[in-house]
């Protein structure tokens, strides 16, 4: 298996996600899921695995929603996917098809040529009917529908910009209503995206949106890999890339260990490190060993091309938290990073952070600080320890932050 | 010669892939890796997406062509992979269009599978439906195979697709993981680099680096090999070829495409073949670069445009000045531009210099600004670099040269006349860029001087400067070769340089061989011959062949019209060698020739005077020596270094004459001499300190030594001496701690002379011994014995001292081993060897091995007496050991006789007598424990019997007998000494430490 940062991974070679996937199927028995994860942690791979290897009784339908920019496009795409699926089982979406015909769709040889979409096309009805068709048809087959919708926030953002906030709110409300309506019939959704859904909701709330359209879903956080699987992935990639390993004893497992550890067990970074390690080992005197891994990681963190695209963590701050909170967030992260002498994160209490914010003049409101910390936790900057203190969630990010901010 | 391969300058995909394979350099590993990844994409569920980023002309299409070729050749992929290589000139503004282009590309490559007919019905659908239908058609036709989409100019594709199109494409790839992409881009656009973008983090990005100099040469060689042009390959491998490519590399900046153009020019030796493709290349690239510059903010655009007009790296200060901006502003903009890849920087000392990162950008801007469509400056520069002046003229006057070529040739000739030798300048610039500041300061002038004479010489110097001696020597050897076509001057210089490199490597014979070759060249100038002879003479000196050495110097001295300075050097060197042969008359004659007869440079006259002065001094003619030194000091306008040297040596001479005041005055003059070299100031301080010490002014001595220790830039050997001398004074005054500190400082001084370290260790060991710390003493002596390259004199001393210390510890075995080691030590000083033999004899006597003792003693005494001057050491310890060894009168008599015989046979009766007398003193030293009168009497009788027949022993015996009588009487009655005459009596009074006064006598 070769390192493949950014590409699609052969599902047979996905490492260390079986337990999480089992947990997802267990949860889906009860409720739908909103999946949050830092980008590049491997959530799309998990979704693809759910789609390719469903538990008995489930029928997954996968859609990457970032391509849809209006509620109408979304509703029609759902119709097309459902219809494609049902036709494979010699069934069809009767109600929705009739409805589309009533809107001007023409059926030629059993294929419905979709009606021309206009501004007032009742997308809610299309969505509602097609899901009803699906649920009913699957009930006959004793199956349960599962929508795997990736990049939901992207679509909502596009809809918000193209059709306005009310339409985006309506999409969320409609989806919630559909989940409620068909809950007992087994309809489930897995909603995910690389931007936290909480940002979309927060944006809409600023426009007087009072609902909680996701409170019926289970918030599932995709963690980085456990130590064992991370090491296994690194080992497999090192073998697949035929990385020249140093002859010193145990360097094989030591090297894989170092890769996994320094990548914070992120599959994406593990792939990146092994790829860079391959080149570095060719030119090094001894071949790959933990010291060379450390060197490669340091080079990647300092590389002006930012191959791991970590500068995004800095650049998105004003977008995520608004320009008025930018200095406060920077102050929090700088304060934590500056205190850490090595990769081990240092934790600070809310009181400490407040005192520091006051001293720096960036923040003097405890409630605002608590709000910010909660959001930063949701955005994977921070995590809390047992004492309630905050620290960097990922040591790698902390290390980069120190370097990038010259702390 | 085979038919020339067709190498497309602009569309490598039109070049036969086999030919591309043959000329590929630098990217073999990258290519193999990309093929492996594409292979894995085709055969597993892993789908790799690759992106190669590099400016125009860096070989992206070349790489992709080979990738597709190799995948196409792999029969195992026939049923697993379908390749759609998109036409780079078409654009797509929607996913639908992109899918159509993919289908059409597949149709071209696999017409039977992806038929045009299948596409027809889709044109009747709405775009949305057509997109869906086409996606389904593609997926259906692909079956379970992987689709490899090759996209050149991904930046243009993404720009066309816009955000919506990109999102749709990404969603398509995510939903249908059958697609793998191999793409290229001229730069990393925001659509890929920004995290918000759909394709962020999606591609495995590789940045294509420009060709290095060596890779560029390899590319040109590969092309020549492909064309079967062995003559071109040979030229590229020659020093001339290498130096020209090195200079051209500076102009091309490692751009692949420029080298392909250049290869056509080199292969055909046709200016037409350079100008036309180059002009076309520039035409094609100009809009691209213009647009890149247009994207920039105004301030940055101005900086880039300014740098485009500069043909070498420019300091920030100069940029700021020319743009009426502050340095701070320009610096920060340049930093940003560097991040964007527009400029690159180099450091010269504290100064940052900037230049345009891609030479093509500079060229294109130049074209834009050059409205009158004159010849392209860069091509004119190429010609100036490629051809020598006479070649340019020959081509211009050749009737077959066409009009275009004439324009360029004329421009090149004109530019050469106006601006000088461009190739030389580029070579110098290129090496300067590769060297650090110190390297530039050290080597820059040499490389520059060589570049003016010959590019190959400059190349060799550049390699030498970079520490690549082997390459430098290879080039120099080539230059000096019979068929190199180089002038005698260049060959001479090359051999001189080779000699110097070998010399610095310590390869003296090879250095001499280089000079032999130089001297064998025909028509070498007198000056060069003289220089080579002087240098070769110096090499012979180092090789220990003084006959040949003198012959070489004599040859210079006799060489008609040889430069005076070289004759003077030869005379001085010959004089030194005569001096080493102890032929001081000839030595002085040679120095005198420099002083009296030649109009030699002052420095050499000063050197001759100082050398002659030293020789006079060694001959004992101190007046003449002082006169010579004084001549340097007072009469000659000699450089300060020589005045300082003359003052110090004159001071030493005054000191030897006992005129310490004058000596001190001379040393003080050096210390106060403005700009005197630190080396001589330190020497003056140390010598003055020693003189103060002799005068008993230890405070001033210590102050002078301390001054050296603190003197900035004082040579380490002088610091070492100062520390040692100060340690000695401290030791003499019982301040063992300070003495040990100073000796330790010498031992730890980085690069201290070995002799200094050895001396310090021995003295420290002695102090440790005196303080009762025998272990540390032994450790110090052992350190000297094991010190690599320790002078044998000091190693011998250390052995003797260690032996004595072991003896004190009653470790007689170790002690004996050390003493025996001394006699085996090659080159050990005579005194130490004799001392060791005597000590060994004493050891044997003390341990009852009389016969062995006598052998050792005899050996020691004989060795000493046969040396000149003779040295037979001090036998007092032997006598003491013997006295203590037995009280038996018979044995004592017997042994006294044999001991006496050993001294007699070794002609050392005097030493024996002195030892017996001194032994009396030792017996007397402890009056409480005086031996019994009987013991003393048998002792005296034994010696009287042994020596009765030897006249030379009569006086010592008489002294001895009186001394014994004195001791027998209790050692207090000086009246007993009145048996002796006054002189003899004084000797014993001295030995017994008695006052020589009438009162004392009366007291008896």
Automatic annotation (TrEMBL), chain A:
Gene3D superfamilies according to UniProt: P-loop containing nucleotide triphosphate hydrolases (3.40.50.300)
Superkingdom, taxonomy of origin: Bacteria
Protein's recorded name: AAA ATPase-like protein
TrEMBL record, chain B:
Coiled-coil parts of chain: none
One Pfam family it belongs to: HTH_5
SUPFAM superfamilies reported for this sequence: P-loop containing nucleoside triphosphate hydrolases, TPR-like, Winged helix' DNA-binding domain
HTH arsR-type domain residues: 291-369
Example of a GO cellular component annotation carried by this entry: cell outer membrane
Any one GO MF annotation of this record: DNA-binding transcription factor activity
Residue span(s) of domain AAA+ ATPase: 46-211
Keyword Manganese: no
GO biological process terms held by the UniProt record: receptor-mediated virion attachment to host cell
Residues in TPR repeats: 644-677, 758-791
Keywords noted in UniProt: DNA-binding, Repeat, TPR repeat
Superkingdom of the organism of origin: Bacteria
Keyword NAD attributed: no
Protein name: Cdc6-like AAA superfamily ATPase
